[in-house]
C-alpha cells in the first residue's frame, strides 16, 4: 500500500483560504486601507494560478516557504496593477511566513490515522509513504508524529528528485517494496496524483475524501474506492 502524507495521514493544507483570511486580518493595519477579505482573495487567486502550472509546481514544491512568498508577491503585484496600494516587501514576506508557520503549527494526524497504520502494519502489509515537498519540511512532520516506524519505504520528492504524478514515483516505490501494480493500492486525497495517475499503471486508486465533499460531478476520475478516514481501509 502506497500512502500519501498531507491531508491523508495528517490534516495539513485543507481550506487555505480561511488561513489566508486569518493572516490578512492580523496584518490589516499594514494593508494600505484594503480589507482582509480583499487581500486574502487576491492571494488565493494568485495561489490557484501559481500551482495550476505543473512545471512550476514541480520546481517550487520542494521549497514551499519560498513558494508562498512568491505567491504573495504576485498577489500584491496584481493588486497594484488593478490600481491598489503598493505594500512594503517586509510586510509581504511577513504575511507569507506567518501563513507557513500557522500551517505547520496546526497540522496533526487525522483521528484514527496512526492506529490504522499500526493495524495495517500488523496485518503484514508492505507500506510505503509517498509525499511531494521538500525533504526538511516533510522529515520534520514524520519525526514530530513518529511516522517513520510504520513504513518499509519513505519517498519524499525533494530527496529523490521526482514526485507524484510522475510515473517513476509510483514505479520506484513499488520496486522498493518488490511488488507489482496489480498487488498495490495508492491512497491519497488528490484525485489526479493518488487515483488517476496510479490507475494508469494498473494500481488500485483509493481517494481519501477527508472533507466529505463527495466526488465532483464534473470529475472524469473514478476512484476504485472512496474513504472518509484511514480506519476504513481496515474493513
Short précis:
The protein has 235 residues and is α/β, with parallel strands linked by helices.
Strand and helix layout:
Layout: E1 2-3, E2 10-11, H1 16-26, H2 36-52, H3 54-60, H4 64-81, H5 89-106, E3 108-109, H6 113-122, E4 128-131, H7 135-144, E5 153-156, H8 157-160, H9 167-177, E6 185-188, H10 192-199, E7 204-208, E8 225-227
Parallel strand pairs: 1-4, 1-6, 4-5, 6-7, 7-8
Antiparallel strand pairs: 2-3
Helix pairs in contact: 1-2, 1-5, 2-4, 4-5
Considering the chains and any ligands shown, give keywords for the structure.
six-stranded parallel sheet, single chain
Q: Write down the Rg.
A: 19 Å
* Helix/strand structural class: alpha/beta
Quaternary structure state of the chains depicted: single chain
Q: Count of helical segments? A: 10
Mean pLDDT across all residues, rounded? 95
Number of strands: 8
The major beta sheet can be summarized as:
6 strands, parallel
Kindly report how far apart the N and C termini lie.
15 Å
Q: Which stretches are poorly predicted, pLDDT < 50 over at least 5 residues? A: none
Q: What letter string, H or E per element, gives the SSE order?
A: EEHHHHHEHEHEHHEHEE
Share of helical residues: 40-55%
Strand portion, in percent? Answer: 5-15%
Amino acid at each position: 500500500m502506497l500512502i500519501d502524507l498531507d491531508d491523508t495521514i495528517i490534516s495539513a493544507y485543507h481550506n487555505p483560504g480561511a488561513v489566508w483570511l486569518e493572516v490578512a486580518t492580523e496584518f490589516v493595519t499594514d494593508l494600505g486601507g484594503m480589507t482582509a477579505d480583499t487581500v486574502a482573495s487576491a492571494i488565493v487567486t494568485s495561489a490557484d494560478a501559481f500551482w495550476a502550472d505543473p512545471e512550476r509546481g514541480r520546481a517550487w514544491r520542494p521549497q514551499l516557504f519560498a513558494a508562498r512568498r512568491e505567491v504573495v508577491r504576485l498577489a500584491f503585484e496584481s493588486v497594484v496593477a488593478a490600481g491598489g496600494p503598493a505594500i512594503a516587501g517586509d510586510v509581504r514576506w511577513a504575511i507569507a511566513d506567518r501563513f507557513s508557520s500557522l500551517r505547520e503549527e496546526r497540522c496533526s494526524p487525522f483521528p484514527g490515522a496512526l492506529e490504522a497504520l499500526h493495524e495495517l502494519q500488523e496485518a503484514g502489509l508492505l507500506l510505503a509513504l509517498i509525499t511531494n515537498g521538500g525533504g526538511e519540511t516533510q522529515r520534520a512532520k514524520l519525526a514530530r508524529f513518529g511516522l517513520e516506524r510504520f513504513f518499509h519505504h519513505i519517498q519524499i520528492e525533494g530527496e529523490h528528485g521526482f514526485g507524484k504524478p510522475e510515473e517513476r514515483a509510483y514505479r520506484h516505490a513499488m520496486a522498493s517494496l518488490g511488488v507489482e501494480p496489480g498487488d498495490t493500492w495508492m491512497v491519497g486525497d488528490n484525485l489526479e496524483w493518488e487515483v488517476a495517475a496510479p490507475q494508469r499503471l494498473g494500481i488500485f486508486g483509493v481517494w481519501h475524501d477527508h472533507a466529505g465533499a463527495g466526488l465532483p460531478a464534473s470529475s472524469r476520475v473514478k476512484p476504485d474506492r472512496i474513504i472518509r478516514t484511514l480506519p476504513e481501509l481496515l474493513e
